[in-house]
Amino acid sequence: MKVLIPEEAVQKRVRSLARKISRDFAGKELLLVGILKGSFIFLADLARRISVPVKIDFVRLASYGPGTHSSGTVRITKDLETSVRGKDVLVVEDIIDTGFTLRYLFRRLRARRPRSLKIVALLDKRGRREVPLQVDYVGFTIGNHFVVGYGLDCNEEFRNLSGIYVVK
Length: 168
Ligand code: PRP
Fold this sequence. Notes:
There is one protein chain. By secondary structure, the chain is an alpha/beta fold. Helix content is 23%, strand content 32%. The protein contains 3 helices and 9 strands. It has helices at 7-24, 40-49, 100-110, and strands at residues 2-5, 30-36, 54-63, 74-78, 88-96, 116-124, 137-141, 147-148, 164-166. It has a 6-stranded mixed sheet, with helices on both faces. The chain has a 3-stranded antiparallel sheet with strand order 1-9-8. Helix 1 packs across helix 2. The radius of gyration is 15 Å and the shape is globular. The structure holds 1-O-pyrophosphono-5-O-phosphono-alpha-D-ribofuranose.
């Protein structure tokens, strides 16, 4: 494995995203919605750096069918436990690839009438996008690498690494 983004650079970027988000939501309360499992470390760090009051909830999504993500078929396997109606919601994702996962979640959440609905993603593989998606806050745009660490796995391993690594 080769380091792509060292721990210090990840932390610096998370701090800067948190500052921007805190400014944009000044005077409001945020509901952070983490997408399991990959977002758990990013969400934990981001939440501790955001200076406006936050509440936290999680969803888990599954893709199925041949080709998984590229099939575009997504379903919720663990839903939110909180109502999003009338709230300022920020979806927290570790990585966006084709965009199918977030497009599905975004549509489902928007139908529940939040006051606002935005997306923060630590990593964006923009070149792989198959559906248009507006991502409000992006940590790093990366190439088409298979990456692990900081929540991201390879067969469930390596989620606990502090930096982001490319698997060769
Ligand atoms: C990853 C990532 C996103 C999704 C992005 O999750 O966390 O949720 O894939 O892909 P897309 O843009 O092509 O839809 P994964 O399925 O690896 O699950 P995990 O977070 O539980 O590891």
